Amino acid sequence: MKAVMVHAANDLRVAEVASPDAGDEGVLIRLAYGGICGSDLSYWKHGASGTAVLSEPLVLGHEVSGTVAAIGAAITAEAAAAGVEIGTPVTVHPATRVGDPADWPGAAERTNLWPVVRYFGSAAFTPHEHGGFSTSRRVRLDQLRVLPPEVSLRTGAVVEPLSVALHAIARAGEVRGRTVLVNGCGPIGSLAIAALRQAGAARVIGADVSAHALSVASAVGAHETVNVGLGEKLPENVDIVIEASGVAAALGGVIGATRPGGVIVQAGNLRAGAIEANIAGIVTKEIDYRGSYRFADEMDAAIRMLADGLDVSAVITHEFSIDNAEEAFRTATTAEASKVLLRLAE
């Protein structure tokens, strides 16, 4: 089968690798679509993502959808009870938690904070955890999330990033009737804007330095946009900020935009190591500054929202075949791209 593998910085290859089977206790997925994430781009450009450094070739990709192609004989009955059979359309939860829950107090309630997690397309551990940018992949039954008829396989590839956005919104608390600033309108930020509108936020403002990103933000429902790259000013006294840019220099501005007693959720990954930022207003305004990491059980909610009509089509700006993976990755780094998809089926 074909797989998109990174071997080192600037060394991305579409390779022929051995095809997996379901085994006795697994499920074989014939993959259809995969969304390119910032971590995929980082492995390609730098040979690392955060503190995870490549030490061997890695199949990338953790935002995927496909159909069930085979089910292990030992789990046939369990799969049927879960509504999983040959041909079922699915997306995949990319995390595998390692260790005993008793060793990590509180981790059972906040599963995204489990200290040791093997994640699709991650070099955090050796051997690396191969991702889903391939023709097929074996997964555990519990990793599957069935897609209802209202959610296409193409849209199913954005369930994972939408789950990240929903987790950030959940970390903010009640958003209905609130004014919310989303700083950074890449895929996560724009998906957050769409979800905030559906959740009843009264006023949603998108801010970015890119005119194209702001056009996507408007298309998914932002009431207003602010192009800070052109010197436009952020609003004042917003109730909640979803900081999705991950740019440390932006923190002073979003703190200034937040009302006294407001909430800032840091959804964008800040770079590792020391950063310089103007954060004094967190103290003087008694702002709640909250982190948001991946997601917990929001995949089910994401699928329900999509099935109920949440339109995120504007976030998907480009689509390429697996054979043109490097062109897809290059496109994903341009100002004209939001979510770039790979067609994985041969």
Automatic annotation (TrEMBL):
<feature type="domain" description="Alcohol dehydrogenase-like C-terminal">
    <location>
        <begin position="187"/>
        <end position="307"/>
    </location>
</feature>
<dbReference type="Pfam" id="PF08240">
    <property type="entry name" value="ADH_N"/>
</dbReference>
<keyword id="KW-0479">Metal-binding</keyword>
<dbReference type="Pfam" id="PF00107">
    <property type="entry name" value="ADH_zinc_N"/>
</dbReference>
<dbReference type="InterPro" id="IPR013154">
    <property type="entry name" value="ADH-like_N"/>
</dbReference>
<dbReference type="InterPro" id="IPR002328">
    <property type="entry name" value="ADH_Zn_CS"/>
</dbReference>
<comment type="similarity">
    <text>Belongs to the zinc-containing alcohol dehydrogenase family.</text>
</comment>
<dbReference type="InterPro" id="IPR036291">
    <property type="entry name" value="NAD(P)-bd_dom_sf"/>
</dbReference>
<protein>
    <submittedName>
        <fullName>L-idonate 5-dehydrogenase</fullName>
    </submittedName>
</protein>
<keyword id="KW-0862">Zinc</keyword>
<dbReference type="InterPro" id="IPR011032">
    <property type="entry name" value="GroES-like_sf"/>
</dbReference>
<keyword id="KW-0560">Oxidoreductase</keyword>
<feature type="domain" description="Alcohol dehydrogenase-like N-terminal">
    <location>
        <begin position="24"/>
        <end position="144"/>
    </location>
</feature>
<dbReference type="InterPro" id="IPR013149">
    <property type="entry name" value="ADH-like_C"/>
</dbReference>
